[in-house]
Amino acid sequence: METFRPEPTRSKAARRVNAVLADMVHRKTLKEVQFGSIRVGRVVHRIRWHHDRVYRFALDLDAKAVALTSFLPARLPPQLLRDLQSFLRMLMAQGAIGSGDVRVFARHGSLTLAIVVHGDAYEHCTEQLLRLGDRILREFLDQPAYRQYRIERLCWACPDERR
User: Fold this and answer.
1) What is the pLDDT of residues 83-108, one digit of tens each?
2) Who's near 50: CB < 8 A, 6+ residues apart?
3) What is the dihedral of CA 39, 70, 30, 156, to 10 degrees?
4) What are the φ/ψ torsions at residue 106 (nearest 5 degrees)?
5) pTM of the model
6) Which among 87, 103, 79 has a CA at the least distance from the CA of 136?
7) Rounded CA separation 69/114 (Å)
């Protein structure tokens, strides 16, 4: 017989996610986090990360999801989106993506990367989302085919290409 466990309160889930983000700053995985406040079941934090860019991390408690909204802020070439979806399928097949359903979609001309949280695994999905974002920025966009996109649209090049 299963034991009934009530859903965690919104503030507890948000505090647990905040603790994960603060720990990632402490471990130097992230450079800085500016914490937002919960509004209508959603909170948006600003994180300083790769190349000192600010990314928006969203925790949607109603949808039970964590997301990097406007993760790739420039309009995406269709081939890049298809290749990114293939890259994510490869990671899923390798078991690199655990609990939670990964969603990638273009909205308002930019790419959003999200994970739908299963159960109460907000902390795990937060870490998983940021690891996945890191792999996209470090591995996927590091491919020669996307060099021009990185330079023109994201304004950053590979370390050996900087002056």
Assistant:
1) 888 888 888 788 766 667 888 887 77
2) 134, 137, 138, 156
3) -160
4) -90, 130
5) 0.83
6) 87
7) 8
